[in-house]
Structures are given as structure tokens and as C-alpha cells.
Amino acid sequence: MKKISILKFLTVAVCCSTIFIACKNNDTDPVPDKVKKLMHDWKITSITVPKASAPETDSSLLKTCMADDIIQFNSTGFDFQDGAIKCDTSIFYYSKGSWAYDLSADSIQLGATNPVKYRSWKVVLLNDSIMKVKFIDSLNPANKLTKTISFKH
Questions:
Q1: 70-74 vs 77-81, strand pairing mode
Q2: What would the DSSP string read from start to end of 94-143?
Q3: Mean pLDDT (the chain, rounded)
Q4: CA distance 91 to 82
């Protein structure tokens, strides 16, 4: 009789333990969909600024040497790389550093380490294959420009 009571107790204990372990909350901050979509290698397809003479239209700043430039986003940071055909940095700094996605402002916050610079990109479009961002370029403080960069992957 005692053996049956002990066996029942152990069976109930094992079942309860299994249920409690299975129900344990294993969700450690699920990654938002926008962040998942961002974490790829993105190739530049265009860089534009509004025309001074006609602000409603854009002028292209994309140079031939930028055709193989990419930015990589992963869980450890970002790396904006100049491709095999080297460009100057007058259009955009090639840099690396940390990043975060601000869901409330729908923007990508970049903390570059080389050159040391902080930048915020407003996300205009982000889907499975296209990313389009806007930012104010302050390389020349007297002539701040709103630039739009489009990427694909």
C-alpha cells in the first residue's frame, strides 16, 4: 500500500514538474518584425537630395563607384563598406558601429565608431527587399541637406 502511495506521489510530482517546466516563459524579448527585416546586407541603389532650383524634385548623388557599396546590419552592429571600387567620403561616410531601431519614431539610430559620429535615419520604407531612409547630412553645417538613400538586398 505504501509503495502505491509513493508511486502515485512520484507520478504526480513528475507530471507537475513537466507542466511547470513546459509552461515556463521562454520569450526573451521577441525581435520586432522591422528589426528582423533590417538585419541583412543592403546594397545602395540611390542617394538623392532635393534640387535647389526645384525642391519638389530630387537630384541623384549616386556615383559609379558606389555600385558595390553595402551596409550590413547584424546583432553586433552595422558596417557601411566601400566596395572594391573606392569612393571618397564627400557623399557619405563609410563607417561601422552600433545601431538600434527606435520603433516609436520609426528610425534607425546609428552610433558610428569610425569616424565617431551619431546619425539618425528616418525610415521611409522597409520591407523584405527594399529600404529607404532620410537623414539630415551635416557634414557641412552651413549647408545641411536632407538626403534620401535607397537600398535593396
A1: antiparallel
A2: --EEEEEEETTTTEEEEEEETTEEEEEEEEEEE-SSEEEEEEEE-SSTTS
A3: 78
A4: 12
d(CA 128, CA 40): 10
Can you list the domains of the chain with their CATH numbers?
33-152 (2.40.128.540)
Q: Pick the more confident residue, 93 or 18.
A: 93
Decide: 35 and 41 in contact? Cβ < 8 Å: no
Assessment of whether the complete model's pTM goes beyond 0.90: no
CA-angle at 141, arms to 61 and 70, nearest 5°: 35
Helix (H, G, I), strand (E, B) or coil at 3: helix
Between 93 and 48, the more confident residue is 48
**Could you tell me which of 48, 63, 59, 51 has the C-alpha nearest to residue 135?**
48
